Request: fold
Amino acid sequence: MIDNFSLGLTHGLMLLAVWYLLKRPDLDREAGPRDDAAKPAKRQKWGRRDA
Amino acid sequence: MRDLVFVAFLGLFFAAGFRRPFVFVLAYVYIDIVSPQRLTYYLLNAVPISAMAVALAIGAWAAVDDKSDTRMAPRQGLLAILLLYCWYTTINADFPVDALSKWEWVWKALAFAIFLPLTLRTKLRIEALLLFMILSAASIIIVGGIKTLGSGGGYGQLNLMVDNNSGLYEGSTISMVAIAIIPIILWFTRFGTIFVPDWRVKAFGFALIFACLLIPIGTSTRTGLLCIGLLAILLLRDTKRRILYLSLMAAIGIAAVPFLPSAFTERMGTIKTYQADASASTRLAVWQWTIDYVKDHPLGGGFEAYRQNKIRYDKVRLEGAPDNAVVDTQLEVDSGRAYHSAYFEMLGEQGYFGLALWLVIQVAGLFRMEVLRRRYAKEAGEFAWVAPLAAALQNAHFVYLLGAAFIAIAFQPFVYMLIGAQIGLDTYVARRRSETVWTGFGKRRSGTAPAPA
Reply:
């Protein structure tokens, strides 16, 4: 009973944490100080849809 | 029933790994700490889930993870040297078969500690690793805490779900780990971002800390009590209102005494009369044997070298009133006694060089965390979390090094994950620092002359 309560609580929290992690882009890549400058250049290259 | 729930849980865990490969690392951490295959009766026992998780973690890292900004810390090199050296002592061990069985899990712990920092590229990954270490340990600690409240426990009596007394399910080890993670739990109640610190996170965190404090009581381990004492002193450094903290600690300590189970108070009383206690006397005798042993075998005897020891020691007991006591000395003979200390474990098994290397790895961890604590102490913005995390990891490491004096846990995998997290934090902030410095030059160049680097 106690075992299952503890396992259920911690494993539930771990699943919830994994769920939150899946929605976080900064898990794999953080915006560095140089990234802001690099992004617009990329867009210009491919053009915009409404252009 | 429990088996099916575990299978479903692991299934979801692994499935998430295919979306975000770092989750495989977390899955391995979870499996290594909780050992779900030992909590179930069928299904999981048949599948090598630990090997699968580690293969997927390394495979995913090698295949898809960004490695452009990978940094190696000197401590990873030291761990690699230790790994090679342990392999050398294993093939030359006094007990080759027994040594090999310990080598089988030691090399994994060391290799994972070398690999782990390579994956810790973002702040969120460091946080996720620590969160899963804590929640995994919590699955054992909450059981122990509730059972201690219910029954009071006792040395070797607290049922922690698994009978075989290995890994974190061993009483002394879990009481050391439970105290060591308290500073990290406190960090999560302030700086967590996966579970944003609201009242629920704080309530869970403090309840978990309470359960952690109950573990040394439930397992009646003297080491755990010493660890609590050390942690109370260490936390003093980060406390702003020290007088309030000290009086609060004293009040809690005094208030807790009447509630402590008698099994615990009796055993703690033996800290002072250690000479009458076989467990403590054998330790001193084994340590003496180890010091003598390495004089003849400076490279150590390989894993499990203690099996050859034969020790004789006097058990001293005082009988009668304190001022008129009769000293009763009893000669005890024993053989094959374990080290009961990580320091002597390293000395006896890996010799002077192994112990020295191990100590350098430990002390370097304390030192690097001290550097980060000081460097980021005044940080208020984006890096405000760094100094408190470095402090928490350093305090956890101090608690481990005290516990290690009385438990043979030189290669405890949980601790090597902690060391991996330290290295990960260190390389992460070094990388971020270099990026910030780069933009700093750019800005300065357009304005005033650059300051000397």
